[in-house]
Amino acid sequence: MNKKKIINDPVYGFVTIPSAFIYDLIQHPFFQRLRYIKQGSMSHLVYPGALHTRFQHAIGAMHLMSLAISTLRNKDVEISEEEEEAALAAILLHDIGHGPFSHSLEQTIIEGVSHEMISSVLMQRLNEAFHGKLDLAICIFNNKYNRPFLHQLVSSQLDTDRMDYLNRDSFFTGVSEGVISFDRIIKMLYVVDEQLVIEQKGIYSVENFLIARRLMYWQVYLHKTVVAAEQMLLQALRRAKVLAQEGVGLFASPALVHFLHQRITKDNFLSDHSHLSWFTRLDDTDIMSAIKAWSTHEDKILRILCSKLMNRELFRTEMRSGAVTATEFQELQKRTQATFELQDHEVDYFVYAQTIQNSAYDPTQNNINVLAKDGTLLDITAASDLSNLDALSKIVVKHAVIYPKEIFN
Question: How crowded is residue 318: how many other Cβ atoms within 10 Å of its Cβ?
C-alpha cells in the first residue's frame, strides 16, 4: 500500500505525508479523534467560519516542521533522517491529549490534568503499539534530547505549533490581524550551540508574529462573547455532573456517562487505565449531543443553560481593568435570582466573575534570541527597535463579570 499521501490543506495547499510511519500515526484512532475536536472551542459562535479542527492544526504544524527542518539543513545544520521523523511525529502528536472543545473543558472533565500530560501518556501508549518507534519523538517532546532546538521547534515561544494556529485561526475566523509571515520566519531560523535562534534580518517578521498573537488572544480566544459561551458550557457540565451523581436520569453517550458519574482526578486517572480508554472515545460530538438533549430537560438550571447555548442566547460579559465589587456582584446575583426564580445555591450557575490574563511574550521562559551580524545573541526585546515590543512582555490582566442579559430588561 502506498502510504506517501498528500492532503489538500486550505491554508498551505498540498501537504505531503512524508513516511509510512507518519501515515500510520495519522491513521491511528487516537489521532483520528482530533477530527471531531474544534480548534477554536466556542469561537465559532462569534466567528462562524471557525469550525476547523485539531486534526487540521496538527497536520499544518507538521508541514511547518518539515519546512523548518529543510531550511536548517540548507544552512548546514546536520539533522538525521531519524531526527527528522521523530520531530515530525512529536509535533504531529503534540495536541493528541486535547479533550472536547480543546482548552475550554481542560481540567474539568479530569480535574488537575492538562492536555500536555494526557498527550504524554497517549504517546507512551502509541510507542508501545509501534514497538518503540516513538522513543526519540518522546525525548524531543519532553525536552530530554541533547539537541534542544528540536524541542523548541515543537514547543517554545516561536514554535511551529504557534505559527500554525495563528495562521490557521486567522484564516478561518477572517481576523486579518492574526496573519503572520510564517514562511519568512521559517527562512530566518538558525541554530547556535544547539539552540534555536532567528537571524537579525527576520526580526520584523517576529515582531509582527508577537503583535499578531496579542491581537488574536484578545480579539478571538479571549473575546468576551467566547468567554461567556465557554463559561455557560462549563456550568452546564457542572450541573449535569451534580444531577448524575444524585441519580437523576440524563441522556449521554457511554464515554460521557463515565465522566459524569464519577470524580476523576490526577491520581486516579493515572492509576486506573480505564479512564484513559474512555477519554480517547470522547470528543465534541459527545458534548454537543448531550447539550442538545439537555435543552429540554426537566431540571430548570440545566435546561436554561443548554437551551441558551443551542440558540446562541449567550450571557453578557463585561471586561474591566478592575475586579467587580462585592456590592455590585451581589446585586447581579439578586436580580438573576428574581428573574429566574432560583434558590440561593443555584445562582452560581448564572453569575460568575473571572480573571483573565495574557502576555504575548515571556522573556523569562524559552526566550526568542536574535542572532546579530557580529555573532552575538540578543533577546528579541533588546534587539528590537520597536518601542512597544517590551510592553508585550508584560502580563495584561482583565476582570470579567458574566451574567444573563435578561436581568436588566
Answer: 14
Phi, psi angle pair for 158, to nearest 5°: -145, 60
pLDDT tens figures, 159-207? 999 999 999 999 999 999 889 999 999 999 999 999 999 999 999 999 9
List, for residues 90-109, the tens digit of each pLDDT value: 999 999 999 999 887 877 88
Which among 358, 368, 360 has a CA at the least distance from the CA of 388? 360
Sign of CA dihedral 36, 159, 172, 103: positive
Q: How many residues are given for the chain?
A: 409
- pLDDT tens digit string along 207-265? 999 999 999 999 999 999 999 999 999 999 999 999 999 999 999 999 999 999 998 98
**Per-residue pLDDT averaged across 363-380, rounded?**
89
Query: Looking at residues 259-286, what average pLDDT do you find?
Result: 92
Interior CA angle at 141 toward 57 and 95, to 5°?
A: 30
Cell representation of residue 126:
502509541
Mean pLDDT, rounded, for 297-302: 97
Return d(Cα 235, Cα 167) in angstroms, integer: 31
